[in-house]
Amino acid sequence: MTLLALALCLGGALLFYLASPQQRLRRAALPPRWRLAALLLAAAGALAWCRAAGPGPGLFAALTALMLGWVLLPYLGWWRPAAARP
After folding, report:
1. Do residues 35 and 17 make contact, with C-beta atoms less than 8 angstroms apart?
2. C-alpha of 52 from chain center
3. Which helix (H) or strand (E) is 43 found in, with range?
4. Per the UniProt record, which residue ranges are transmembrane (predicted)?
């Protein structure tokens, strides 16, 4: 259950990042409607964490997983070779 919760939170973080105009992984940002999908994934991940660990620890685990994604994704965009950057 925790792997599913982690995957949901990281997927939500990825979609939030890719829908941002400042993202560097794609040539163009995803349309704003993808933010709703990101919100649903993040909420499902938080619910899964709460079911796996309880409400308090689950909420903090979900926020930690989201922050992990939001910290790592800009570095992945920076790490790509210059020729592959948009």
Report:
1. no
2. 19
3. helix 34-53
4. 34-52, 59-78
